[in-house]
Specification:
By secondary structure, this protein is of the alpha+beta class. It has two helices and seven strands; from the N terminus they run E-E-E-H-E-E-E-E-H.
Length: 148
């Protein structure tokens, strides 16, 4: 089955594996925020196969974290898998996906823009917004891809 994931007008695919798609999220309140979506329809983590878990670890986690350290000097990382919003609908159809937020002890200046992680080292603010231009998203994407 094809994945049924919300489409954002500014989706930029950083890379794909056999099982996952990594998208740069339009909301860059946390520099480099990504959405990692399972390519098959699946609503629960318990549905993942050992191959999908191994691919997630080897080809997503082991690539993204070092790339962000090199690209933007990220301090640490938050990985979240909520899927709560699907249950707002009468007939929920959750889709397995992860939100990846690099966290920064220090401010980051990139492409003439200042990014501040004002909550560091506490929990991130899930409602914080910083929608950036498509041009800036492309520059962020290019910088990350240098290190993947």
């Amino acid at each position: 089955m094809k994945m049924k994931m919300k489409k954002y007008k500014d989706d930029i695919i950083l890379f794909e594996t056999d099982f996952w798609k990594v998208l740069l999220f339009p909301n860059q309140a946390y520099l480099g925020r990504c959405l990692i979506s399972l390519k098959k329809d699946s609503g629960e983590l318990s549905d993942l196969t050992s191959e999908e878990w191994a691919d997630f670890h080897k080809n997503i986690v082991k690539k993204l974290e070092p790339a962000f350290k090199k690209a933007f000097n990220a301090t640490m990382f938050n990985w979240t898998c909520f899927m709560n919003h699907a249950y707002r609908d009468e007939s929920p159809n959750p889709h397995t996906h992860w939100h990846f937020r690099a966290r920064y002890k220090n401010d980051v200046e990139f492409a003439g823009e200042k990014f501040q992680d004002t909550e560091f080292p506490t929990h991130y603010d899930k409602d914080r917004k910083k929608i950036v231009s498509k041009e800036l998203l492309k520059k962020i994407s290019e910088e990350i891809k240098k290190y993947l």
